[in-house]
Amino acid sequence: MLAARRFRVVGRVQGVGFRFFAQEAASRDGIAGWVRNLPDGSVEVVAEGEAEAVDRLERHLWRGPSRAHVDDVLVERLDPSGRLGMFDIRS
After folding, report:
1. What is the pLDDT of residue 84?
2. What is the DSSP letter of 82?
3. Would you say 9 and 76 are in contact if contact means Cβ atoms under 8 Å apart?
4. pLDDT at 91
5. pLDDT by residue for the chain (91 residues), tens digit each?
6. Burial level of 61, CB count in 10 A (0-12/13-18/19+)?
7. Mean pLDDT for the chain?
8. Identified catalytic residue from 5, 19, 28, 36
9. Domain boundaries defined on the chain
10. CA–CA separation, 54 vs 17, rounded Å?
11. How does DSSP assign 12-73, residue by residue?
């Protein structure tokens, strides 16, 4: 079953390779979507794929790369669109 979610990752998550970490984790599981830094210092991730894969991505986001410190991962469930391509890093 397909699932889609928007995550906002809060903490020390910019300047630590978080976007590359998220892209690698998502690509490994065939998840489509994107990741970007937000002006408030958080990171936004939009992901769509098999439900189990999106759940695994959420667990990876809670962990983050070694230099990150994740305080919270806010989750918004979305309707899968099937229109997202590869998993990209956006500016």
Report:
1. 73
2. S
3. no
4. 86
5. 899 999 999 999 999 999 999 999 999 999 999 999 999 999 999 999 999 999 999 999 999 999 999 999 999 999 998 877 899 999 8
6. buried
7. 96
8. 19
9. 2-77
10. 20
11. E-SSSSHHHHHHHHHHHTT-EEEEEE-TTS-EEEEEEEEHHHHHHHHHHHHH--TT-EEEEE
CATH number for the domain running over 2-77: 3.30.70.100
* Interior angle at CA 29, CA 57 and CA 4, nearest 5: 55
Residues, the chain:
91
Active site residue 37: yes
Which DSSP state fits 75?
Answer: E
Residue in 3, 5, 38, 6 with CA at minimum distance from that of residue 19:
38
Catalytic residue among 6, 36, 37, 56: 37
Global confidence as pTM = 0.95
Task: Name the 3-class secondary structure at 8.
Answer: strand
19 a catalytic residue: yes
